[in-house]
């Protein structure tokens, strides 16, 4: 077997399967039905036993986003929490668009919910070819914009993943430092619940 050439996609295609010139979506679904593959997100599948890493989840989510806008949007909120392994599979991707870009053509993106926000240079990371909010920005946004029933378990999971580097006190300070937003008080109440549970 020859070594991969520089233009070869390499082993990533053994990790993630999606409709292309090799398999149709119907064929992938049939293989999933037979237990040969397992669904990951959208029309993407993995082999059984393959660990769904943040990179794989981000790649699967990225396939849902039209290629022409993929570098203009950022996966955020509960979508980012899911990518980090701290939330449930989203029904629709939550995508953030920096307010300074004002890309009106994105409004018709199917399978996605778009939010116009302000993003700082430390708010965005690249995972698996998709721009994603940083762990701290993700936690702040989940606290501010997601109802408590879904937010609290996701926030607890984000805090429990030590490799993400989020501490509850840092998160509280970050929420307190946000400009005046309607849901700030509710966000701090959610974090207070986490503080009570940790006590």
Strand content: 5-15%
- Oligomeric state of the chains present here: single chain
Main sheet? 3 strands, mixed
Quote the distance from N terminus to C terminus. 57 Å
What is the ordering of alpha helices and beta strands? HHEEHEHEEEEHHHH
Percent helix, as a range, is: 25-40%
Count of alpha and pi helical runs? 8
Q: Based on helices, strands and strand pairing, what is the structural class?
A: alpha+beta
Taking all Cα atoms into account, the compactness measure Rg is: 18 Å
Uncertain ranges? 1-13
Characterise this structure.
The protein has helices spanning 12-15, 25-33, 54-62, 77-83, 135-145, 148-160, 168-176, 184-198, and strands at residues 38-41, 44-46, 74-75, 93-98, 112-117, 124-127, 130-133. With 199 residues, it is of the alpha+beta class. The chain has a three-stranded mixed beta sheet. A two-stranded antiparallel sheet has the order 1-2. Helix 5 (135-145) packs across helix 7. The N and C termini lie far apart (57 Å). Mean pLDDT is 87; it is low at 1-13.
Provide a compact summary of the structure:
The protein has 199 residues and is α+β, with helices and mostly antiparallel strands.
For the structure shown, list the relevant keywords.
alpha+beta, 8 helices, 7 strands, 3-stranded mixed β-sheet
Q: What's the arrangement of secondary structure elements?
A:
Elements: H1 12-15, H2 25-33, E1 38-41, E2 44-46, H3 54-62, E3 74-75, H4 77-83, E4 93-98, E5 112-117, E6 124-127, E7 130-133, H5 135-145, H6 148-160, H7 168-176, H8 184-198
Parallel strand pairs: 4-5
Antiparallel strand pairs: 1-2, 3-4, 6-7
């Amino acid at each position: 077997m020859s070594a991969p050439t520089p233009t070869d996609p390499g082993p990533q295609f053994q990790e993630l399967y999606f409709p292309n010139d090799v398999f149709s979506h119907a064929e992938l679904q049939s293989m999933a039905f037979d237990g040969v593959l397992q669904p990951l997100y959208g029309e993407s599948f993995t082999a059984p036993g393959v660990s769904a890493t943040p990179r794989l989840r981000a790649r699967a989510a990225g396939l849902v986003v039209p290629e022409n806008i993929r570098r203009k949007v950022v996966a955020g909120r509960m979508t980012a929490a899911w990518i980090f392994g701290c939330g449930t599979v989203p029904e629709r991707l939550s995508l953030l668009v920096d307010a300074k870009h004002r890309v009106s053509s994105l409004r018709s993106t199917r399978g996605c919910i778009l939010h116009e926000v302000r993003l700082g240079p430390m708010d965005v990371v690249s995972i698996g070819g998709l721009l994603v909010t940083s762990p701290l920005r993700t936690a702040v946004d989940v606290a501010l914009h997601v109802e408590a029933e879904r937010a609290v378990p996701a926030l607890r999971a984000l805090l429990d993943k030590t490799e993400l580097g989020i501490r509850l006190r840092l998160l509280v300070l970050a929420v307190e430092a946000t400009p005046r937003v309607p849901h700030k008080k509710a966000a701090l109440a959610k974090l207070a619940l986490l503080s009570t549970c940790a006590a």
